[in-house]
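Action item from last meeting closed. Structure (239 res):
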């Protein structure tokens, strides 16, 4: 009887196994694969059945998930969707090549790479490190875009708030911004948040006026309403 080949030794380079989770439809298959990659000295990746994937990702917080599967059925798709919605991670698909019809769905579910089912630890580990790096780069880009959009949105609120103050308080643009900045310091809010509060307060006052519940708002009342909406004491603003 031929001797079984020894388990794959853990490679010296790549993503540490402690940051990897192996999942398969059959939990026993996932555990066997993880044990093979661990080598004689142990210390391989954690393993679980796909039905427990979200729970184990929450518990172990792996950086990359290796998914051993030969096709995408409804239960597996549901598990991957739950993971993508709540605990997104880059996934490495290990198995038969996904059908072309599944490719876009797999990408949407977080599958970032593919290797054949018989891939060794030495083949898997460098790709895991690459997937993690690409994932981190993509997340950084998404955050940078979100920050840029937030700054643009805040600038729009600031411009609108300055316009309100300039019209109702006969202030210059510089003085209007100074008033917003002072309110920001007193309320511990960003200038954009202060500006949004002022606009929403002014809109509420306009709605009250249109309803006939308030016929006339003096400049002093408009200013007081705006500052109260920002959580700033009128007495402090008058100093």
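Sequence:
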């Amino acid at each position: 009887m031929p001797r079984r080949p020894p388990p794959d030794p853990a490679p010296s380079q790549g993503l540490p196994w402690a940051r990897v989770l192996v999942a398969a439809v059959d939990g026993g298959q996932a555990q066997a694969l993880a044990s093979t990659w661990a080598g004689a000295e142990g210390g391989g990746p954690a393993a679980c059945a796909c039905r427990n994937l979200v729970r184990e990702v929450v518990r172990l917080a792996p950086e990359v998930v290796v998914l051993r599967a030969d096709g995408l059925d409804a239960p597996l798709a549901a598990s991957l969707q739950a993971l993508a919605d709540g605990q997104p991670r880059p996934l490495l698909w290990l198995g038969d090549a996904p059908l072309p019809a599944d490719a876009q769905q797999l990408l949407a579910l977080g599958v970032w790479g593919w290797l054949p089912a018989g891939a060794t630890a030495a083949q898997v580990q460098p790709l895991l490190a690459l997937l993690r790096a690409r994932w981190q780069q993509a997340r950084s880009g998404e955050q940078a875009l979100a920050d840029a959009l937030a700054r643009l949105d805040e600038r729009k609120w600031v411009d609108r708030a300055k316009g309100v103050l300039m019209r109702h308080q006969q202030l210059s643009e510089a003085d209007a911004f100074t008033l917003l900045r002072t309110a920001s310091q007193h309320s511990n809010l960003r200038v954009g948040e202060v500006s949004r509060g002022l606009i929403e307060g002014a809109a509420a006052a306009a709605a009250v006026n249109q309803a006939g519940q308030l016929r006339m708002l003096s400049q002093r009342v408009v200013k007081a309403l705006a500052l109260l909406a920002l959580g700033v004491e009128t007495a402090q603003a008058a100093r």
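Note appended to the action item: Residues 1-12 have pLDDT under 50 and may be disordered.
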